[in-house]
Specification:
- With 89 residues, this protein is mostly helical.
- It is 76% helix and 0% strand.
- It is found in: Endoplasmic reticulum membrane.
- It comes from Centaurea solstitialis.
- It is a multi-pass membrane protein.
- Keywords: Endoplasmic reticulum, Membrane, Transmembrane, Transmembrane helix.
Amino acid sequence: MKHIVKIMTLLVAITAVWISLLQTAVIPRSHTWLLPLYFIVSLGCYGLFMVGVGLMQFPTCPQEAILLQQDVIEAKEFLKQKGVDVGSD
């Protein structure tokens, strides 16, 4: 519930700033109408950047990979005992 309050507060603040910019002549009106679009595009760029950073820092877990391979071997053996064809190794 706290996150929704933070998000709504941020959206209200951004909307208030945008409406105030529309009311005043600080920025030309044609540019002010495009500010929500700029905001959405910059938010998308930020999201893509964060995904890229997360992928670059993705941890490798060699121990977990070995455990996973052992689980796969155990599952194949179990299925073979039950008469299921699991393919060749």
